[in-house]
Queue: 2 jobs
Job 1
Amino acid sequence: MVNKKTSPRVARKRNQARREILETARAVLKQRGPDALTLGAVAGELGMTKQAIYHYFPSKEALVRALVTALLDEEIEFLVHAVESEKDHAKILGTLIRAFYAHYADRLDAFRAVYCELQLLSPGAVVDAATLTEQIHPRTRRLFDMLEARISGSTRSAAKRRRNRQLAFTAWSSALGLMTIISVGDANDDPLAQPHDALLDTLCRVFDLAAS
């Protein structure tokens, strides 16, 4: 039997439905927290049945992973644009750190979804290898490929390029660490004693100096 191809119109409708479900899931997460993010809650918000949601996402885990992937896409696009727009090569890593902060400072729900994904999943669930290798790694690799190229410039030395890539990863990890502390403080109504701008300035100076 020959499988019929999905028509462009049907594909567009399906993609639109998936986007609406993901947007609603994101709204539920932001307004009610991770414990409230269920297929039933999303279906209720959309006026759909839970069975209808299964047509697009077979489980809560599938929905969460799709949501995380969509949010990660937004992050990578934002960071890539910010770094590519920076003309001063000596400020590439500082720009990366500031852009990471700017992207998540007023969207801590999105930050928690991307970097605390496991708390959204069912007990015992893990991020499977296929998600990591097929969804997460290609996206982050794109960012670090671009950072390595921007920092290295015309450098052909494999050792220097490897060092620059490690430096870029460390800068990104430091920005992630700062946002994690800010997120924890926000969740516990215990803001940092140090102003965010001062912490950002320090991180940016350290990494811009290291990359010079």
Job 2
Amino acid sequence: MRVAVTGAAGRLGRALVTALGDAPFTGPAGPIAWVRDELDLDAPSSIGRLLDRDRPEVVVHAAAWTDVDGCARDPELAIRRNTVATGEVAIACATRGLDLLFISTNEVFDGLRTDGRPYPPEAPTSPSNAYGVSKAKGEEVARAAYVHRRGTVGVVRTAWLYGAPGNDFPTKIVAAAERARAEGQPLRVVADEWGQPTYAADVAEAIVELLADDAIGGTQHLVDGGIASRADWARELFRQLGTDVDIEEVPAATWERASTPPAWGVLEPTVLPSGEPMRPWQAALADYVPLLRRQRAAATR
């Protein structure tokens, strides 16, 4: 199976390229990795040329503008990159009878639930920020492209994604802790945002399982197991790092931001073809901590 990945240099994209490289069904050539130089979301019309040149059977559209605050400041650009570009990719794939898997987000939900229940895949979307709006519309245009056309379209939503190349929550919170310690202050961390810290490598492996089982259709929620607040995530990270950090839990309103993330961003996980759930987020974090240590060591040299 020839699988192409857009946004192959991004967090999930690079994890997908690695996971697909180890999958026997991609053959000796491995996956097709399209980076921004080949498919720029500001000029997505190149997708037809790429499809005809590389002839994939499935496209995993992981490329996106994920700067949520940037999306809030320029919602029209967010729509162009996350909705219009997705529509062009979807139409190009559908007209050629190719399968498409679109990567989306928990931010398609407003996060206002107060019953403690996760959002199931079939729940109506209700985004409350520009990033969520652009991704929810991206889901819509991807599905619409396949009406009355050959091929399968699927949507994967994930949440609180972290992993290489860094610049993620663990990297930022470690840096923030160092600054707070230098100033003799506690580290203030948000306690009223809830979600599922999810390792990009785990999502990539789950997508490989879906592809191998020809099960990409519909809407899938791929998140690591368990629920945490941002403060819970930070506390567990420092425990695994063996670092004593004085954490002060604060509300999200402590900081003024351009975008408002969902307070309850918890997704109901999809059962994978194997029947096995994705592992607990704490176990996944333990795999990332050694890499984070190496990154921090390299940064201080």
